[in-house]
Amino acid sequence: MNAWVCEHLELRYSLAPKAVEVLLKHRQLKWRDREAGGPLFSNAPGRRCTIDVASGPFPQDRRTRHGYIPNRPSVQADVLQKHGSGLHFIGTWHTHPSPQPTASSLDARSILNLYRESDHDLDAFIMLIVGTGSDPATWELSAQGTFGKVVLTATSLTGSKAFGAGGHEIDGKCSDQRSERDG
């Protein structure tokens, strides 16, 4: 099982096998594949949790090769239905046609706005960018919350780093510096 960590902020998100199956199915492997995305859910949300379910995309979403706009009513209905089953919304995922994807400035604004405008009691929402690789360690997971925005480092659950030197802020190293809060 893969995990993404930022030890300085005590963040650790792991990805359940069932969620991995959904995400792998929607990778953009061919030139005609369009971006896909949807909500992420956990049975026990918090700074250290498992992403138990990835849902979406929905038929009403707007999807192009380099763009994804979720259909808000479809997402909201899914969030409410899953909440009734004991799952909690913790963030979003979407694909990029790249082997090592990174969030765009639009992606960053989107998760920030979602975090600020949503009614919740979480320290952060996460955003997972799924690339073309079959190893989730090559995907990017970031967290946006009370501490600002950080990009976490992929690691195995035994603690060995898959890549990188530690989770990092947009302007610094998570493990070495304090996060600056987004204003």
Total number of strands: 14
Radius of gyration: 15 Å
Structural class label = alpha+beta
Number of helices: 3
Poorly predicted sequence stretches spanning 5 or more consecutive residues: 157-173, 175-183
Tell me, rounded to a whole number, the average pLDDT. 86
Which H/E pattern describes the elements?
A: EEHEEEEEHEHEEEEEE
- How far apart the termini lie comes to 35 Å
Largest sheet: 8 strands, mixed
Shape by Cα distribution: globular
What is the percent of helical residues?
A: 10-25%
Estimate what percentage of residues fall within beta strands.
25-35%
Order of strands, main sheet, comes to 5-3-8-9-10-11-13-14
Strand-helix topology:
Layout lengths: L1 E5 L4 E5 L1 H9 L11 E6 L5 E4 L1 E2 L7 E3 L2 E3 L2 H13 L3 E8 L9 H13 L6 E7 L9 E6 L2 E4 L1 E4 L11 E2 L2 E2 L10
Parallel strand pairs: 2-4, 8-9
Antiparallel strand pairs: 1-2, 1-12, 3-5, 3-8, 6-7, 9-10, 10-11, 11-13, 13-14
Keywords:
alpha+beta, disordered C terminus, 3 helices, 183 residues
Can you describe this structure?
The protein has helices at 17-25, 72-84, 105-117; strands at 2-6, 11-15, 37-42, 48-51, 53-54, 62-64, 67-69, 88-95, 124-130, 140-145, 148-151, 153-156, 168-169, 172-173. The protein is α+β, with helices and mostly antiparallel strands and 183 residues long. Strand 13 (168-169) and strand 14 (172-173) form a beta hairpin.
Task: Please give a quick description of this structure.
With 183 residues, the protein is of the alpha+beta class. It has 3 helices and 14 strands.
